[in-house]
Design goal:
homodimer, 197 residues, Arc Repressor Mutant, subunit A, Tetracycline Repressor, domain 2, 2 domains, elongated, transcription (chains A, B), TetR/AcrR family transcriptional regulator (chains A, B), DNA-binding (chains A, B), Homeodomain-like_sf (chains A, B)
């Protein structure tokens, strides 16, 4: 029996080339600041591939940049499987805080601020950020279901606090590890500020 | 007796011209993305003044942009004067959330991300953001002193959560007023997520 996997027509895809192309796109964006200033030629040249390789693989910049951001993000852990909501959130935000330290994040921020290409930001929000936010919501809903968390929480506000807190804390160089940052953020939000006495 | 105020040499300063210059600097930055791409000529031309007017008033782009960001920020209320810490924080973050909706914020974000002009971001952080952060710390310290808040809080983490939460919530168009956003953020952090039973 032939166990060779079926191949799509054309040359086989190389994962190394894909990664080099996606990194090159974000690097160039960090340097040039404008999506419009990043040409497919420049991405191809930085990644050491031909333009045709890029066009064969992505329909355009919207797809290319969306996949670049998706690739830059590490997978999030499973949540709601019996651990405490605190441990779930610390696990998720340790990954988030780690990802935010990548030097390629500059490119991601520029994409999300682009006024000339709002469709790219919208697509990244839908295809990359929304499914990741859903993991946080899942953890919170599991915590409510188990009676650990208040049932009247505004979940969007909780998400905004944790994501925003991770974002701001990643901008200052405190020497804390991603896990330490995540623990401070999650414990402060979970326990609240008020003295209970 | 002559009650005419003493005048500095040269033409009197016009507050309207100053405002036009500072707005023009941030507008152009929002359009061109690069600090280096915003020339003093272009700022002068957009503001309808001569280059000399700008050079007479600001030593360079670092001073110009720092004052532009400072001017864009509304004054924060007095805190720690007897109201509850919750009311202090809501009052402060209502102003913060309002400011974050300005269309000129795009320019501020670009300044804070500039890799080519880190000295501008550092100066804005020192001269504009740090004194405003200090108001939040004052409110929190007053809350601890009155026994309203836990004494073991990590105040930097609380600041990062609230500032980051305000930042993220201002990016989505939910139709909420700045005060509603501020109340959701502050009440969620003050009360915490946990069910108390």
């Amino acid at each position: 029996m032939n166990t060779e996997p079926t191949r799509a027509p054309g040359r086989p895809r190389s994962p190394e080339a894909d990664t080099a192309i996606l990194r090159a796109a974000l690097e160039l964006l960090g340097e040039h600041k404008h999506v419009a200033a990043v040409s497919v030629e420049a991405v191809a040249s930085r990644a050491g591939v031909g333009k045709a390789t890029i066009y064969r693989r992505w329909s355009g910049k919207e797809e290319l940049f969306t996949e670049a951001v998706a690739t830059l993000r590490s997978p999030l852990p499973e949540v709601g499987q019996g651990a405490s909501v605190r441990d779930d959130l610390v696990a998720v935000f340790t990954v988030v805080c780690g990802d935010l330290q990548s030097p390629l994040e500059q490119g991601v921020r520029l994409l999300m601020m682009s006024e000339t290409h709002p469709e790219i930001a919208a697509r990244i929000r839908r295809d990359v950020f929304a499914p990741r936010n859903e993991v946080v919501y899942q953890a919170l809903r599991a915590g409510i279901a188990r009676g650990e968390l208040r049932a009247d929480l505004d979940l969007t506000t909780v998400l905004n606090l944790l994501v925003g807190g991770a974002f701001v804390s990643s901008r200052s160089d405190t020497g804390q590890s991603p896990r330490q940052r995540a623990e401070l953020l999650v414990d402060t939000v979970c326990d609240g500020l008020r003295a209970h006495g």
